[in-house]
Amino acid sequence: MQLDLESLSEATSGAIGSLVSTTVLYPLDTCKTKYQAEVQAHHQRKYKRISDVLWEAISTSQVLSLYQGLGTKNVQSFVSSFIYFYGYSYFRKMYLKKTGNKTIGTVANLIVATAAGVLICSCILQPLDTASSRMQTSEFGKSKGLWKTLSEGTWSEAFDGLGISILLTTNPSIQYTAYDQLKQRILKGKRTGTKSSPEALSAFSAFMLGAVSKCAATCLTYPAIRCKVMIQAAESDDDKCTEAERKAQRTISGALYTIWRREGILGFFKGLQAQILKTVLSSALLLMVKEKIAKSTWILMLVIGRYLSMNSPKLKAV
Q: Which residues pair with residue 2 across a beta bridge?
């Protein structure tokens, strides 16, 4: 049995970074998601600007409702990030070992990142993603718990947005491919021949690279992101749609048609600025935390690996 300590270290530090960024930026995420979920002509909109969502929470004394669904989102974010970073590191090492190369090219990196994104196990984590979106887009003060949110609908409804979620695995693929390629350029020439802890960027460099790479990925995939929010959103008391229209909006084609009919082509990019602000800050914070704790996590993994090796001769640390 082999224990891939480097991949385990990458996964642990990445998951912790994701947990921190999700928690810190969750109120912004809630405002952004509720703003994106509303699909109405401009003169009929409840939220003209994203700040209107925040003002509603303050004026109704429901500020704590900006955190509705945080627990579910944290579980989903932590588990998905752990699986993603482990898969990404593992597939990357496997590719380098098979090819004998010392670095990985852009195209190969994109393929590896996409494979890791699919490995996130959307089929397993999709109900958590759907539930957290519905809890965020519920009326302030009316959000329900995870189990009640899922049990109110059918089992198939828990997987709303699965197809577009798989499509959106290209988002982190683009992001981490860009990030890793830029990181390799910065660290080029600093590597030594001896095996030591993985090289780490400074906090500022990691933050800036994370921001640039996530901004590019978000702009390229935003129409799909908007559709996903619509598909998974909770039903609003202000929604004048018929039951047939609501069911149609739960499909990709139905969401696309609804946005086009009610808001026009610019509707596909409604909330883009808020999405960029949130995702860029989240990604940059995640990668900054990940880089800062990477060495500590690596040392911890080495200690654990040494302990397990001493107690189990059949266990070999890589």
A: 316
For 292, the token pair is 């800062």
- Answer yes or no: are the C-beta atoms of 176 and 264 closer than 8 Å: no
The 3-state secondary structure of 206-269, one letter per residue: HHHHHHHHHHHHHHHHHHHHHHHHHHHCCCCCCCCCCHHHHHHHCCHHHHHHHHHHHHCHHHHH
Within 13 A of 10's CA, how many CA atoms are on the CB side?
Answer: 19
The DSSP code sequence of 132-180 is HHHHHHSPTT----HHHHHHTS-TGGGGTTHHHHHHTTHHHHHHHHHHH
Span 173-222, pLDDT tens digits: 788 788 888 888 887 755 555 555 556 677 788 788 888 888 888 899 99
Residue 116 inside a domain? The answer is yes
CATH number of the domain encompassing residue 19 = 1.50.40.10
Show the 3-state SS of 76-108: HHHHHHHHHHHHHHHHHHHHHHHHCCCCCCHHH
Considering the domain boundaries, does residue 123 fall inside one?
yes
CA dist 21 to 118, 157, 232, Å?
22, 28, 22
Residue 177 belongs to some domain of the structure = yes
193 domain-assigned: no
Rounded Cα distance, 20 and 178, in Å: 22
Distance of CA 143 to the CA centre of its chain: 22
- Bridge partners, residue 316, by sequence: 2
Q: How far apart, in whole angstroms, are the C-alpha atoms of residue 276 and residue 25?
A: 13
Residue 147: count other Cβ atoms within 10 Å of its Cβ.
9
Contact 16, 209 (CB under 8 A): no
- Domain, as residue range, for 159: 1-188+201-301
Q: Count of residues for the chain?
A: 318
Lowest mean pLDDT among 81-95, 99-113, 174-188: 99-113
Total tally of structural domains belonging to the chain: 1
Could you tell me which residue, 318 or 59, shows the higher pLDDT?
A: 59
